[in-house]
């Protein structure tokens, strides 16, 4: 790329610098852990999440989200996914 020197004039994140070195479009491939998207919540999963929340929210001295994760049948959900979905609901 003959115009790559112009890109070097501006600050780049490590990901952008890697993309410049390896070729544009390399970040679009799901290579890194930060590039994977969380699976979407189905209406059934949302309903089950609400039911688990109402079941465990009154338990004192226990972590509500940890209890939900232990009883949530959907694999691949992290604590962050559950918290974000609860806030959204």
What attributes characterize this protein structure?
elongated, 0% strand, mainly alpha, 89 residues
Can you give a write-up of this model?
Pfam families: HTH_TIMELESS (PF26019). One of its GO terms (cellular component) is replication fork protection complex. It is a single chain. With 89 residues, the chain is an all-alpha fold. The chain has one domain. It has helices at 4-7, 14-22, 43-56, 64-71, 79-88.
List strands and helices in order, with pairings.
Blueprint: H1 4-7, H2 14-22, H3 43-56, H4 64-71, H5 79-88
Helix pairs in contact: 3-4
Brief overview:
Helices cover 51% and strands 0% of the residues. The protein is mainly α and 89 residues long.
By DSSP, the count of extended strands is 0
Mean pLDDT: 80
Shape: elongated
Number of domains: 1
Structural class: mainly alpha
Cα separation of the termini: 47 Å
Strand residue content: under 5%
Helix content: 40-55%
The Cα radius of gyration reads 20 Å
Largest sheet: none
Number of helices: 5
H/E series: HHHHH
Residue stretches low in confidence (pLDDT < 50, at least 5 long) are none
């Amino acid at each position: 790329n003959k115009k790559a020197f112009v890109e070097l004039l501006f600050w780049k994140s490590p990901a952008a610098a890697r993309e410049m070195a390896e070729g544009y479009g390399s970040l679009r491939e799901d290579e890194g852990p930060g590039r994977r998207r969380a699976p979407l919540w189905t209406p059934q999963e949302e309903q089950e999440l609400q039911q688990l929340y109402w079941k465990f929210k009154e338990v004192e001295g226990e972590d509500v989200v940890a209890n939900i994760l232990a009883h949530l049948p959907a694999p691949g959900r992290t604590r962050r996914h559950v918290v974000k979905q609860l806030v959204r609901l």
